[in-house]
Amino acid sequence: MITKAWAWIKDPIRMIFHHSLKLGVTPTSWQYTTGCIIPKPNKPDYTNPRAFRIISLTSNFQKLLERLILWYLELDLKLPDKLTKNQHGFKKEKSRAATLR
Description:
Order of helices and strands: HEEHH
Distance between the termini: 35 Å
Number of strands: 2
Strand content: 5-15%
Structural class: alpha+beta
Number of helices: 3
Radius of gyration: 17 Å
């Protein structure tokens, strides 16, 4: 949907991204996430966090902004080793189950 509408929304979105980065805030409507924990079928031990699938719905614009920030940190500033160990979003080899430990 964003791809199809990009020609019409790119300038306002870029302006929002720019101001979000400059001011250190994001639009309030982007900050809400709806989550659901779903048990995986036929798991022997449901006390194990890996027996569940976590589904979260977040604003696509928030996800895009987070990816841009992470891309900048990793590629331009060469900071992947300096990021907190608690950072799981968009990180390679980081699972949602690791956030529950």
